[in-house]
Specification:
Elements: H1 2-28, H2 30-52, E1 59-64, E2 68-70, E3 75-82, E4 92-96, E5 127-131, E6 138-145, E7 151-163, E8 170-184, E9 189-194, E10 197-198, E11 203-204, E12 217-222, H3 234-240, E13 244-248, E14 255-261, H4 270-291, E15 294-299, E16 303-308, H5 312-324, H6 333-343, E17 348-354, H7 359-370, E18 375-380, H8 388-398, E19 403-407, H9 409-412, E20 416-420
Parallel strand pairs: 2-8, 9-20, 14-15, 14-17, 17-18, 18-19
Antiparallel strand pairs: 1-3, 3-6, 4-5, 4-7, 7-8, 10-11, 12-13, 15-16
Helix pairs in contact: 1-2, 6-7
Organism: Allobacillus saliphilus
Keywords: Membrane, Transmembrane, Transmembrane helix
Pfam family, one: DUF58
Length: about 425
């Protein structure tokens, strides 16, 4: 309604200007006055034409050259406008409305230097251009979406703007064009310097299940073909007058549960949440290669669980889950943590990745460690983001027997993140 009223008044303004110039030519007379009138007459006529020209004649299409990529990559986009009647249009401004999820640029590891001030990354420019179509029926606009972040990005509309030569008449149209692209989390490299596995007697950390440990002897047995010469127990061999080799405790590799906290109380820590997603994905994949049986749990608004194996389908499920989740600003993660621990069998390692840390979460983690459970809690936050309470909790966890690691800018900007279990 307001747009129609605005168009009506502009139409009256154009007619008024044309009438004033005609009256000037009539009363003034002479070549100059009539030359001015007839010289501006096409401009006035075009303005009147544009007033009634329906922009609804334009139809828009959007096409992505890659509809499924990895965070940090560039994606080419093509916007095409079509119309049936080739009526003259002097200029046309085309703007593709970007979703809010694309307001920032994912520069992969480099982005984490702004972990404490992530607003610096909000520098995405509007994607628009000006075209002079005149009588063209088909118009094409190409642009590049650089450093696309993780997530499902839903495009909804294309805006077009045109006007006359004098700038009096301006018309706008929003054309609905529904498209979406899904960008998976960046698969960054992590190094598990140690891990959690159990022996027949006692416990020892080692994320190397393929290595046979020979430092704990459980007994002796007769020599068998294939035994190493260094395993021979010479004292027993001399007594029994036959070759006897040492027998070692066999390492029992335990299954792994990766638990991702889907909540961040502080909305300014959304970049830390992105790091938590990348890290949890990398930990799940690396544990999958080592153990072949990984349980992945996302504790968000809804509990989402995946049982991962070495199948391609499992990897696709993990990618899809981590591509679409968004952080919550409020949750009861400490309650879910205790619940998950109670449901977890004793012979599973628990890796917790979180961008949130409070007193309740700290107490829950300490309680789990007191239950003789193999727990590693990884907390992600910028150095300047930590509160005094979080500093106190970190100091307490670092001095406790629980496995704990705080990852800040220094760790996340490295090419390889080293996780100390």
């Amino acid at each position: 309604m307001i747009a129609s009223i605005r168009t009506f008044f502009r139409f009256i303004l154009v007619l008024s200007l044309a009438g004033i110039l005609f009256a000037y030519a009539m009363f003034q007379g002479g070549f100059v006055s009539w030359f001015l009138f007839f010289g501006f007459l096409p401009v006035f006529l075009y303005s009147l034409f544009l007033t009634f020209y329906p922009l609804s004649l334009f139809k828009a299409e959007r096409q992505f050259y890659s509809s499924y990529g990895e965070a940090g990559q560039d994606i080419q986009v093509e916007v095409t406008l079509k119309r049936f009647l080739p009526l003259p249009v002097f200029y046309l401004i085309i703007e593709d409305s970007l979703p809010e999820s694309l307001n920032w640029k994912d520069t992969r590891a480099k982005k984490y230097q702004f972990l404490s001030k992530p607003k610096v990354l909000m520098n995405r420019e509007a994607k628009k251009t000006i075209i002079f179509p005149w009588f063209k029926r088909r118009l094409t606009y190409h642009y590049l979406l650089d450093h696309v972040p993780r997530g499902k990005h839903e495009f909804s509309a294309v805006k077009i703007v045109t006007g006359d030569f004098l700038g009096i008449i301006k018309k706008r149209k929003v054309i609905e064009v529904q498209n979406d692209i899904t960008v998976r989390a960046w698969n960054r490299t992590t190094k598990l310097s140690s891990g959690m596995s159990a022996f027949d007697e006692g416990r020892q950390s080692a994320f190397l299940p393929q290595v046979r440990h020979t430092n704990v002897v459980s007994g002796v047995r007769d020599y068998a073909p294939g035994d190493r010469f260094s395993w021979v127990d010479w004292k027993t061999t001399a007594k029994k007058q036959r070759l006897v080799t040492k027998e070692f405790e066999q390492e029992k590799n335990k299954d792994v549960t990766v638990l991702l906290n889907g909540a961040v109380a502080d909305p300014n820590r959304w970049l830390a949440f992105e790091a938590a997603i990348e890290l949890s994905q990398s930990l799940a994949r690396q544990s999958l290669n080592l153990y072949g049986n990984v349980q992945f749990i996302h504790a968000g608004a809804l509990r989402e669980e995946l049982m991962l194996s070495n199948r391609r389908r499992s990897d696709e499920q993990l990618i899809h889950l981590l591509s679409t989740i968004q952080p919550l600003q409020s949750s009861s993660f400490e309650e879910q943590l205790i619940k998950e621990a109670s449901l977890r069998v004793a012979d599973r390692n628990l890796l917790i990745v979180s961008a949130e840390l409070n007193e309740q979460i700290g107490e829950s983690v300490l309680r789990l460690s007191q239950q003789a459970r193999d727990v590693l809690f990884i907390f992600i936050a910028g150095k300047k983001q930590l509160t005094d309470q979080e500093h106190a909790i970190i100091n307490r966890l670092e001095q406790s027997p629980v496995g704990f690691q705080w990852l800040s800018e220094n760790h996340l900007t490295s090419e390889i993140i080293e996780v100390n279990a």
